Amino acid sequence: MTTSLGYGSGVALTGVVLYNLLGLALIPVAGAISDRVSRRPIYLTGALVVALSAFPYFWLLDSGSTALVWTAMALAVLGGAVCMSSLQATLFTEMFGVGVRYSGMSFAYQLSAMVAGFVPAIATSFLVASGGASWPVATLAVALGLVSAIATLFLPETRDLDVSELESRSVEAPA
């Protein structure tokens, strides 16, 4: 931010500290709401916030205003960290029965790391190819937010399931 956008060296650090404090306060709230409402709609909300706030996020970063940069960081924490990251462990755990939970989670994690691991390089190449314009990266963020939202719609609802019902969803395989 200091080199490419011309902000003072303390702007990013202060913003990161502020939005981490905001996330620290709001993550338990999102977890409590997901316990009452369900994880799927909260996660879906986060994915849609990511998709809908991508362009405004970069517009705010490009504004030259420290207050607007911090607002952009707050948008990022509300969408990504609070609504999505805070629920991932529980949401993903509920997708697999006890007998395959570790393998299922590990497979999903490794597959996503293989695919998403290239996103920073892709975003960087978009920035270079566009001469530093942020719209290609914002478009990528919109696409990823929409993919997450669509995938979330296909997740089974676990709100009213008893823990024993989750455990019985294990796959039996011959030894």
TrEMBL record:
Membrane topology (UniProt): Multi-pass membrane protein
Domain Major facilitator superfamily (MFS) profile span(s) in chain numbering: 1-160
InterPro entries linked: MFS_dom, MFS_sugar_transport-like, MFS_trans_sf
Protein's UniProt keywords contain Transport: yes
Keywords in alphabetical order: Cell membrane, Membrane, Transmembrane, Transmembrane helix, Transport
The keyword Transmembrane is annotated on this UniProt entry: yes
Transmembrane segments: 6-30, 42-61, 67-87, 107-129, 135-155
One Gene Ontology MF term: transmembrane transporter activity
UniProt-annotated location(s): Cell membrane
Major subcellular location class: membrane
A single GO cellular-component term on record: plasma membrane
Pfam families recorded: Sugar_tr (PF00083)
The protein's name in its UniProt record: MFS transporter
Organism: Pseudonocardia hierapolitana
Record lineage: Bacteria, Bacillati, Actinomycetota, Actinomycetes, Pseudonocardiales
